[in-house]
Design goal:
The protein has about 350 residues and is of the alpha/beta class. It contains 13 helices and twelve strands.
Length: about 350
């Protein structure tokens, strides 16, 4: 019997189907820890099977208050994603259990994808491709003659964390003006990226491209609603590589359908995968990708090694690196072993 028991939902993975836990075990095997998959359908069944775990590797299913309250000796709940909305953070905090994510593992991939959607949407790439395939070659150029060039346009960020900053670095050479709304980020952080601080209304009214990067938290739920899309330019495009629930999707559909904004590039939706009846699937002025912005050959190994390392730190009595509820650390029984960055967690 192993010294430490790490439980995780069975049949769920961020990576390839049937992927083993070799990367996670690089840090866990020396501690005589094992990863045990729980094939439980119901909440009660999962809670019972996880009760005696030393760590919970959360993926593929919500971890509810009921599950968390049943944990008898769990030292950490670890996620292999940036978003932590699948975990009841308040319940974990009440139990003194640190919850970790991987906020800095795939910043560059997501920034690349955001920039790709931005350029493809701005230049109507999917429409142009379809015109060629449909034998309508001569219609391509006239369709673009009404559009401005990218240089001199205004790019507005909603939230200016690590991904938005990486996007700003990519966008700056295109000669765009950049604004950002983020009440948690100081002007001195924005300035080196060539970004001006602005209110949400200023970003919406002045931007030709609006890119949202807010995390999925209760405060950010439906951060953008109908009244916000009405403030945007009719020629504006909207990009979301953050989280679907930050946007009121019916309001976005209405904005696109009624011409309040011109186009959208979306990697995330409120419901994933979307219903086949979702209007966005039928709109020519929308480019969609399947929540894949973080994916690359580097993505899975790095993310999973990070999860294993975070769990290993907690199992050996040390603070994890990226705790999203850092207030619990002093009460967790774990010891501090390195300086603590003020930019940890889902908003960093």
């Amino acid at each position: 019997m192993a010294t430490f028991k790490v439980v995780t939902p069975a049949g769920t993975s961020y990576g390839a189907p049937g992927a083993a836990y070799d990367y996670e075990m690089e840090a866990l095997a020396p501690l005589d820890a094992e990863i045990v998959e729980i094939a439980a359908k119901g909440e009660d069944e999962f809670a019972a099977a996880a009760r005696d775990c030393d760590a919970l590797y959360a993926k593929g299913r919500p971890i509810t208050r009921h599950m968390i309250e049943g944990l008898e000796r769990c030292k950490i709940i670890a996620l292999g994603s940036v978003g932590v909305d699948s975990i009841d953070i308040a319940a974990a905090t009440a139990r003194g259990i640190p919850v970790t994510n991987v906020p800095d593992t795939f910043i560059e991939e997501v920034a690349d994808h955001a920039m790709t959607l931005m350029l493809a949407t701005f230049r109507r790439l999917v429409v142009q491709d379809k015109l060629v395939r449909d034998g309508r070659w001569k219609e391509g150029r006239p369709a673009l003659l009404k559009l401005p060039r990218l240089m001199g346009q205004t790019l507005g960020f909603i939230a200016f964390g690590h991904v938005a900053r990486a996007v700003a670095m990519r966008a700056r050479p295109f000669g765009v003006r950049m604004l950002a709304y983020d009440p948690y980020v100081e002007e001195l952080v924005m300035s080196p990226y060539g970004v001006e601080p602005a209110s949400l209304s200023e970003v919406l009214r002045q931007s030709d491209i609006v890119s949202i990067h807010a995390p999925s938290t209760p405060d950010a739920f439906h951060l953008l609603r109908e009244e916000h899309f009405r403030q945007m330019k009719k020629t504006a495009i909207f990009i979301n590589t953050g989280r679907g629930p930050t946007v009121d999707e019916p309001a976005l559909i209405k904005a696109l359908h009624e011409g309040w904004i011109a186009a959208a590039g979306l990697d995330v939706l409120e419901q994933e995968p979307p219903e086949t009846t979702n209007t966005l699937l039928k709109m020519e002025n929308v480019i969609l990708t399947a929540h894949v912005a973080s994916a690359s050959a580097r993505f899975d190994p790095v993310r999973r090694r990070r999860v294993g390392a975070e769990i290993a730190l907690a199992l050996t009595g040390r603070w994890p690196r990226s705790c999203v509820n850092p207030g619990v650390l002093d009460k967790s029984g774990l010891r501090r072993w390195q300086p603590v960055s003020m930019e940890r967690g889902p908003n960093s």
